[in-house]
Amino acid sequence: MSVAKIIEISCDSPTSFEDAIAQGIARASKTLHGIKSAWVAEQHVVVENNKVTLYRVDLKVTFVMD
Q1: pTM for this one?
Q2: Cα–Cα dist 64/43, whole Å
Q3: Cα dihedral 41, 10, 26, 51 in deg (nearest 10)
Q4: DSSP string spanning 18-39?
Q5: Per-residue pLDDT reduced to its tens digit, 19-42
Q6: C-beta of residue 10 within 8 angstroms of C-beta of residue 61
Q7: 8 A C-beta contact, residue 64 and residue 2
Q8: Which of 20, 27, 58, 62 could cross-link 42 (Cys pair, CB 3.0–4.6 Å)?
């Protein structure tokens, strides 16, 4: 039997949504073991001077508990 837990994290990147997701998973994997999946709950952008300057995602990360 396995038990999984879901946590929510926010990640951002000046490059893209995909980069924000990759950085978020990379950072989460430093302290969480057994990450099985993640889904994007929300996407946001920060706009300055009519240009997108930051891509932000809220991720729900599922991992199996030890």
Answers
A1: 0.87
A2: 25
A3: 90
A4: HHHHHHHHHHHTTT---EEEEE
A5: 999 999 999 999 999 999 999 999
A6: no
A7: yes
A8: 58
- Dig out the tokens for 55 from the structure: 């891509």
Tokens 């240009």, located at residue: 51
Q: Are 13 and 63 in contact (CB under 8 A)?
A: no
Q: How many residues does the chain have?
A: 66
Which single residue is written with the structure tokens 């995909």?
18
Closest-CA residue to 6 (of 65, 66, 63, 50): 63
Question: What is the distance between the alpha carbons of residues 10 and 58, in angstroms, rounded to a whole number?
Answer: 4
To which residue do tokens 């001077």 refer?
49
Q: Could you tell me which residues are beta bridge partners of residue 38? A: 61
The two structure tokens encoding residue 4: 């999984």
